[in-house]
Amino acid sequence: MSARLQKILSQWGIASRRRAEEAIVAGRVRVNGVVAQLGQTADPTTDRIEVDGRLVVLQSRPKPVYLLLNKPVGVVSTCYDPQGRKTVLELLPPQLRECEGIHPVGRLDIDSSGALLLTNDGDLTFRLTHPRHSVSKTYQLWVQGQPTAAVLRAWRNGIDLDGQDTLPAKVRILKQQPDRTLLEIAITEGRNRQIRRVATLLGCPVLYLHRTSIGDINIDGDRSLPLGSYRNLHSAELHSLEFAGDRSTAAASIKGEAATRSSIFSIKPRL
Fold first, then answer.
1. Is the pTM of this model over 0.85?
2. Position 223 confidence tier, pLDDT thresholds 50, 70, 90
3. pLDDT above 70 coverage of the chain, percent
4. Sheet architecture: strand order including 34-35
5. Is residue 200 part of a domain?
6. Angle between helices 122-129 and 17-25 (to 10 degrees)
7. How many domains does the chain have?
8. Residue 187: which CATH number?
9. Residue 116 placed within a domain
10. How would you class 66 by CB atoms within 10 Å of its CB: exposed for 0-12, middle for 13-18, buried for 19 or more?
11. What angle do CA 79, 86, 253 make, to 5 degrees?
12. Residue 160: which domain range?
């Protein structure tokens, strides 16, 4: 059945939809020998799809995998790092990072720790990272000094960042010491290093930043995860994300059914 090419590549775990779109625009994807165009449709059962000259053989849609990782500081939120730094995929066992097409959903900078989702469901990635969808993310951070009421009010209301005001944020003080303050902040957008940049602009630089939750999914509490560890998402957590996909299939996968599956392509391109 025909579908948009970027959707095919994301649904079959080749890449997130955004990465697939970038590859198509860059001319790296061909269908039946012809350079593909963004928005083009294809039938994965009959058309020859190539990425970077490599044939993608789609035998069956991969079992969806949804993981929550507690990322340590010093690990980059990418599938591959040209500088040779440790990536989040290296925290997973080989059968996941090599066979399931898993990628991180969004980013958490190298100097920060905490909750990060990983999946091979490109539709979920697209949904959670697209600007029109608002998924709250909560952070705990130590900042330098003791922010004044005016500073906290400005942070809550939004400040100019690269010519555009940040969206309203929830900010509360958890603890104060003479030289530092522990804050909890919840935001619904994720510009590059946003919290660190806003804190610097407001005169209270971040000393330590840790993401505790994504939506209703929390790495603390009864399901606390040690740094560097991961777990499958539970069905209730998947429902809370309101992901676009087959929920029954996802729920079955996290209950541990059918641990093995056939290879989904002959040569797996890394986008």
1. no
2. low
3. 81
4. 34-35, 29-31, 49-51, 54-56
5. yes
6. 90
7. 1
8. 3.30.70.1560
9. no
10. buried
11. 50
12. 137-214
